[in-house]
């Protein structure tokens, strides 16, 4: 079956189309050929090979495991040639550069002839990523140099994947599931056509994250059932789902409109930005991104499921939540500060989240916070503000100078974080239209005299560790200073909270 994909489009193991991957699995499952591939050539330890043996389709699990390490189809092709398993090589032949097809006929001797012919034409011939120089080494050693260099070529590690020996097999962990495109050729063609129409493509650095089949995500949410909706926004809808035996949250953008699609393109760009940041900024206080899907009716992002929902839900006591204690509020404030300061300091340039708010702070089963929704995040400059063309974010959490002058800096996140601290300490919403005055929480807090401040305390938090209230409120005031130069960097905020 021809898929229409070429070797330039299908580079990594997890890119293999369903049909070819399925046929390859059939060949390698026969007589347990996969065991030689795993143990002898992929260097997977005996314990893990035995674990794989208990799987219904061990080859598929092996490919999932190896694919998560960003190994390429060419690497697999060469390993199969060393096994002399030409029947398996045929299944992935169309995804390998034609200059390596001769390996199917007579094994690696053909590769030596390919190299020798190339050397006679040019002093330097590139094969894969390896440059072969005519004067070095002798031709008898050249073949081993070339194939070894391809197999040992460093691959960018997946941030979400544990080390090879630590990965549990099957789909029990579900943390980095393989992206096997189960869509039909017609669906894939339509999806590819749609993507070309938007003039947006997923950069190579962001494509390291496995792509999930849209049909699997649809099944995981019971056909996008309304009963599985966790929340809605301008971007689309977030669903709860069970995928790879793991509960996940799936953000599904609205289907592409038939009319003008400027807004759709913006949302798609924001999704790509999330993929880039979350796949390169793994941290205990940043929401893990497991996978993405671009091959179906609508783009989707697959995240870790956070059973306690958002901080906004908890503070509003939605879904039967109990009030947070002061200790829990301190832990949430500390973890959120840790995540933001990590974004601001991890690279040469800071990443500015741009939409810090209680609705984007997600809580796990232990009420530990994780920052989510990086669709508005942008790269900033270490010592200067960035002029942006338009204001993005949530109004009650944005400082006046940003709204007036469109100058973006890390101090925008600091200000937004300060508003979250006000929410944690008072239990009040960042904006409340029912308040007769001071509908914005920042204005409301500023209107109170210092002697009356204790009256703002959220009484539902109890009396134990009440001093947390003042800590959060005063740090919130520090973070929401009118002038950005008077606001602290998040690194200092974290240190302050950590020392309390």
TrEMBL record:
SMART domains named in the record: S_TKc (SM00220)
The reaction(s) this protein catalyses: L-threonyl-[protein] + ATP = O-phospho-L-threonyl-[protein] + ADP + H(+); L-seryl-[protein] + ATP = O-phospho-L-seryl-[protein] + ADP + H(+)
EC number(s) recorded for this UniProt protein: 2.7.11.1
Organism of derivation: Cephus cinctus
GO molecular function: ATP binding; protein serine/threonine kinase activity
The name this protein goes by in its record: non-specific serine/threonine protein kinase
InterPro entries: DEATH-like_dom_sf, Death_dom, Kinase-like_dom_sf, Prot_kinase_dom, Protein_kinase_ATP_BS
PANTHER family for this protein: INTERLEUKIN 1 RECEPTOR ASSOCIATED KINASE 1, OS01G0253100 PROTEIN
Positions of ATP binding: 251
Keyword terms, alphabetized: ATP-binding, Kinase, Nucleotide-binding, Serine/threonine-protein kinase, Transferase
Any single Gene Ontology cellular-component annotation: plasma membrane
Matching SUPFAM superfamilies: DEATH domain, Protein kinase-like (PK-like)
Matches recorded under Pfam families: Death, Pkinase
Protein family (similarity comment): Belongs to the protein kinase superfamily. TKL Ser/Thr protein kinase family. Pelle subfamily.
Keyword Transferase: yes
């Amino acid at each position: 079956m021809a898929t229409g994909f070429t070797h330039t489009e299908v580079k990594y193991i997890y890119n293999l189309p369903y049909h070819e991957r399925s046929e390859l699995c059939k060949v390698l499952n026969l007589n347990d050929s996969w065991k030689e591939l795993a143990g002898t050539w992929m260097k997977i330890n005996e314990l893990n090979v035995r674990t794989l043996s208990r799987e219904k389709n061990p080859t598929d699990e092996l490919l999932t495991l190896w694919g998560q390490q960003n190994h390429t189809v060419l690497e697999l092709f060469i390993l199969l040639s060393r096994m002399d398993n030409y029947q398996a090589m045929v299944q992935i032949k169309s995804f390998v550069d034609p200059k390596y097809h001769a390996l199917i006929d007579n094994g690696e001797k053909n590769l030596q002839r390919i190299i020798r012919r190339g050397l006679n034409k040019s002093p330097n011939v590139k094969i894969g990523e390896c440059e072969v120089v005519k004067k070095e080494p002798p031709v008898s050693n050249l073949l081993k140099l070339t194939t070894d260099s391809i197999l040992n070529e460093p691959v960018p590690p997946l941030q979400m994947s544990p080390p090879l020996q630590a990965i549990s097999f099957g789909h029990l962990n579900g943390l980095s599931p393989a992206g096997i495109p189960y869509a039909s050729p017609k669906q894939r063609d339509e999806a590819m056509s749609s993507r070309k129409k938007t003039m947006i493509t997923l950069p190579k650095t962001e494509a390291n994250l496995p792509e999930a089949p849209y049909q699997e995500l649809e099944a995981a949410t019971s056909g996008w059932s309304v009963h599985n909706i966790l929340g809605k926004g301008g971007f689309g809808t977030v669903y709860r789902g069970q995928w790879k035996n793991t509960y996940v949250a799936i953000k599904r953008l609205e289907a592409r409109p038939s009319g003008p699609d400027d807004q759709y393109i913006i949302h798609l760009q924001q999704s790509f930005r999330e993929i880039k940041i979350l796949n390169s900024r793994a941290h205990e206080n940043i929401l893990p991104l497991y996978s993405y899907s671009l091959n179906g009716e609508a783009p989707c992002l697959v995240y870790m499921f956070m059973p306690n929902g958002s901080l906004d839900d908890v503070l509003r006591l939605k879904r039967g939540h109990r009030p947070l204690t002061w200790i829990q509020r301190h832990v949430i404030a500390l973890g959120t500060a840790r995540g933001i300061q990590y974004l601001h300091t991890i690279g040469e340039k800071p990443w500015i989240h741009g939409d810090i708010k209680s609705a984007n702070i997600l809580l796990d089963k232990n009420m530990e916070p994780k920052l989510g929704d990086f669709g508005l995040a942008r790269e900033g400059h270490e010592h200067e503000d960035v002029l942006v063309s338009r204001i993005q974010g949530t109004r009650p959490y944005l400082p006046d100078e940003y709204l007036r002058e469109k100058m973006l800096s890390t101090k925008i996140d600091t200000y937004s974080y300060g508003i979250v601290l006000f929410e944690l300490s008072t239990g009040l919403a960042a904006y409340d239209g029912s308040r007769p005055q001071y509908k914005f929480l920042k204005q409301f807090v500023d209107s109170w005299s210092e002697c009356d401040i204790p009256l703002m305390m959220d009484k539902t938090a109890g009396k134990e560790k009440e001093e947390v209230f003042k800590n959060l409120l005063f740090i919130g005031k520090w973070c929401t200073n009118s002038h950005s130069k008077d606001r602290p960097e998040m690194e200092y905020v974290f240190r302050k909270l950590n020392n309390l």
